[in-house]
Amino acid sequence: MRADAQRNQEKLLAAAAEVFASAGVDAPIRQIAAKAGMGVGTIYRHFPTRSDLVVAVFHHQIEECAQAGPRLLADADSPFAALHRWVDLFVDLLVTKHGLAQALQSDSSRFAPLHAYFLDRLLPVATQLLDAAAGADEIRSGTHPYELLRGIGNLCIGHDDDPRYAPRRLITLLLQGLRRPGPT
Asked: How many CB atoms sit inside 10 A of residue 82's CB?
């Protein structure tokens, strides 16, 4: 793909993710097109069906989250700070994923590989971040990446139904619970 076409596709996927997160996956394609600054025909030319667009958005967000882990680890003040920032990105993905999941239920065979892809790409990143934080003696060792990701996912459920529910606050508490106790 040419560089300009790649940039346009990334712009489109980012716009679709934003619209899906705020208005749901059933939002009009014209709303996504307006957000991306392109025509509806361009979207349909690249993604003939809504499900094609949903899958592409999901893959794009997983890749962004996966690629951010090592970068955050290299740039953060500490491995725990990198873990915390990465979890924020992961939560952003999950909030969108819950909206996307509703659309994915109708054709499970088409979307079945997404869960495996999700785990294949994000578990190694979570492992790397947890191992670095444990190696720096910032968190207790022995935290299983799958359990952490699953726990965060479970805390994200229900944010749509209750405006008083703040999953990020609970996730911060969860991450604080991983910290090694200081000297008493």
From this structure: 23
Residue 28 in tokens: 């009009």
Whether the CB-CB separation of 156 and 167 falls below 8 Å is answered with yes
Q: Find all residues with CB under 8 Å of 74, minimum gap 6, and list them.
A: none
Give the tokens for residue 58: 């999901």
Integer Cα distance of 127 and 69 in angstroms? 10
Look at residue 75 and give its three-state secondary structure. Answer: helix
> Which residues is 139 bridged to in the sheet?
179
Cα(69)–Cα(109) distance, integer angstroms: 30
Q: Are 164 and 103 in contact (CB under 8 A)?
A: no
Q: What is the pLDDT of residues 70-107, one digit of tens each?
A: 999 999 999 999 999 999 999 888 876 665 555 555 55
| pTM, to two decimals | 0.82
